[in-house]
TrEMBL record:
Organism the protein comes from: Meloidogyne enterolobii
InterPro entries the record matches: Peptidase_aspartic_dom_sf
Protein name: Uncharacterized protein
Length: 204
């Protein structure tokens, strides 16, 4: 599965899911020689809208811990039913937004500059998977939502209480996600920088 993004006339970023099933397509879009070690995962038995697997921590570009997760964490695979790209309790979301150099205003988190401004170097974070021997990197551009007035609203949200962190597919925007719902395993590999032929997922 791959996520791809586009920005429409209203400066809204959308991230869509695409599924490929043939080995030739894997080679076309993914660095297969850099695939991670498979790790155990728990899938939604009926729809496969969600998958749950163990995440160790969120780290910054230098490997410093931003949020220690150390538990099974839910990832939304189907953009039509996902909420925000990252959502959770206020304490964790505040740590993430600070590490991204994001600002908060009333009910939104945002970055300076427009979402599609490639001249701006966004702060990078990573989801660290010790058992998979990989860190999934993402930055503010992967969380982009709506651009206006020289700001970029990003898709993160905080809840009161002890809500655990949850993630949407666009956090994995720079990676291929391989999954086997029968063996209950997933793996990752870095994605090649090339245009994706749009194709829908029929796993739902």
């Amino acid at each position: 599965m791959l996520s791809y993004e586009y920005i429409d006339d209203y400066a809204i970023y959308d991230f869509f899911d695409n599924c490929f099933y043939e080995e030739e397509e894997f080679e076309e879009y993914c660095f297969m020689d850099k695939m991670s070690t498979p790790i155990n995962a728990k899938f939604d038995d009926e729809t496969l809208f969600d998958v749950e697997f163990f995440v160790d921590e969120i780290v910054d570009i230098e490997g410093n811990t931003i949020v220690n997760i150390s538990r099974n964490t839910n990832f939304c695979l189907y953009h039509m039913v996902c909420g925000k790209t990252i959502q959770g309790n206020t304490k964790d979301i505040t740590k993430i937004s600070n590490a991204l150099n994001a600002h908060y205003d009333i009910s939104r988190y945002y970055l300076d500059g427009l979402c599609n401004d490639t001249k701006i170097k966004r702060s990078q974070l990573g989801l660290k998977f010790n058992d998979a021997n990989i860190t999934i990197n993402f930055d503010g551009s992967d969380l982009a939502g709506y651009s206006h007035d020289n700001i970029c609203e990003i898709e993160i949200w905080d809840w009161n209480g002890d809500e655990q962190l949850e993630f949407g597919l666009s956090v994995l925007n720079n990676y291929c996600l391989f999954f086997d719902s029968i063996l209950q395993q997933i793996a990752f590999s870095p994605r090649k920088k090339k245009e994706i032929k749009s194709t829908s997922c029929n796993i739902y």
